[in-house]
Amino acid sequence: MPKYALYVEKESIIHKIDPRAKLSWVLCVFIWSMTFNDPLWTLMIFIIVFSIGLISKTLKEFKFAYPGMISLFIMCLILWPLFRRIGNIIIFEFGPLIFYKEAFLYALAVGIRLCAMILAGLIFLATTKVEDLEVGLVKIGLPYSIAFGISGVFRFIPTLLGDGQLILSAQEARGLDLRSGSIFSKLRKAVPIIAPLLVTTFRRTGELAMAMESRGFSIRGKRTSIIQIKFIKKDYLFTIFSIILTIIFIVLRIIGYGAIIPQVL
């Protein structure tokens, strides 16, 4: 059976960290990545995130995301030098287009930055159960309805992917060929997949609404949970370490480090 859930059951210290601590780490990674636009510094951020992924033992589970990350990285290298025309050293000129060395390095930094942010998010989702995420969001002060909605996205997207794959397999068994033809032909052929997937999604949405109402979702009052999470020593250390690194990186950027183009993020 194909596996569509993002969470990966592993024995690692990252899995055992409180979801609030991991959420703060992801936020810090986003800040670290946006702090620098020098590729060497953003590469350092990526290495830190990659190291956390190694510790969590989940990197091999992200094979589905690597082609997209590589494509995004290549698109950054192509597009950013076209739009960020800032610099002193010209690499080459092509008609009215001028490509600067600084713009290319900036594009390289942005590509690495985005990959680090995506990888951090994947590590968070692969090491955090949806139920723990929901409780963690409530603990940090979000209303239960919002926490439930956020956790519901991560809970049901894998289900929809599974439904889509099941429908695709069924239609291919009936002779549907999505691998040949032009892109417009493939779009027309996708209708037998999209239509039943929409019907299935609406049906699941209605069933979910009835299940929520039958369990008193709309009733006001303080809610309790069978899942209990609590900050312990390792959670405090992980969060404090992330915040300290954030402060250090911001100070380094303020005094002039890690910036190919100082006037932009």
Beta-strand percent range: under 5%
Strand order of the largest sheet: 1-2
By DSSP, the count of extended strands is 2
The number of helical runs is 10
Mean pLDDT: 85
Structure explained in plain terms:
By secondary structure, the chain is mostly helical. 67% of the residues lie in helices and 3% in strands. The protein has helices at 13-16, 19-35, 39-56, 66-83, 101-127, 130-139, 144-173, 183-189, 191-214, 233-254; strands at 90-94, 97-100. It has a two-stranded antiparallel ribbon. It is flat. The model has no long low-confidence stretch (mean pLDDT 85).
Q: Secondary-structure map with pairings?
A:
Blueprint: H1 13-16, H2 19-35, H3 39-56, H4 66-83, E1 90-94, E2 97-100, H5 101-127, H6 130-139, H7 144-173, H8 183-189, H9 191-214, H10 233-254
Antiparallel strand pairs: 1-2
Helix pairs in contact: 2-5, 2-10, 3-5, 4-5, 6-7, 7-9
